[in-house]
Amino acid sequence: MNHSPVISNRLVKAVFLDRDGVINVDHGYVSTPEQFEFVAGVFEACQHFQAQGYKLVVVTNQSGIARGYYSTEQFETLTQWMCQQFAAHGVHITAVYHCPHHPTQGLVPYVQDCHCRKPEPGMLLQAIADHGIDPAQSIMVGDKGADMQAAASAGVGHKVLVQSGQPFSDQEAALADAVWPSLHAFAFGTPS
Questions:
Q1: Cα gap 48→136, rounded to integer Å
Q2: In the prediction, which pLDDT does 93 show?
């Protein structure tokens, strides 16, 4: 009898991270390293998740590109710098996905309804496909209801809302499985 070899399709787990408000303090349309202030404890939290076997994937709406506040090239330069800062702390960012669009404001060709801008799940679904991620074993950490909606639509198993200073309603909080003060607090189970 001829048997085909068994091919392993073992999926990996990931922590999906919103950027502004989770990784860095949301100062509004951050586009340079000088404006980029890492949230306290973010490196330690990411080290912790990495040690637990999670891939780290950033999924970020960047309508500042659509609005003309900064270019795709400036975003990519900042992203490379950000990933270098993580690497210097022993953290590997598997991938960064961004949506440059806005449905009503900005410059052609970026003004459009798209499937990547959260609350749509496009960035997460692309990451899941690109990296063999099992969404059910994965976590989304964001600071807005839109992050929780995108995660739910992508089938992400655990949704965490962090208190970045951005207001969110009780209804938005109800979309999350947990609300924590920060990524660090969630990672280590401490209230602050």
A1: 20
A2: 98
Residues 167 and 171: their CA atoms lie apart, in Å, by 12
The token duo for 88 is 């210097």
Phi, psi torsion values for 64, nearest 5 degrees = -60, -25
18 is annotated as an active-site residue: yes
Q: Specify the pLDDT at position 192.
A: 52
- For the chain, domains (ranges, CATH) are 13-134+149-188 (3.40.50.1000)
* Candidate list 20, 26, 143, 147, residue with the active-site label: 20
* Active-site residue, selected from the candidate residues 18, 26, 143, 147: 18
Arithmetic mean of pLDDT, 26-38: 96
133-150 b/e (C-beta count within 10 Å ≥ 16 → b) = bebeebbbbbbbbbbbbb
Buried b / exposed e over 89-115, threshold 16 CB at 10 Å, is eebebbbbbbbbbbeeebeeebbeeee
Under DSSP, is residue 183 helix (H, G, I), strand (E, B) or coil? helix
Task: Place 6 in a pLDDT band, splitting at 50, 70 and 90.
Answer: very low
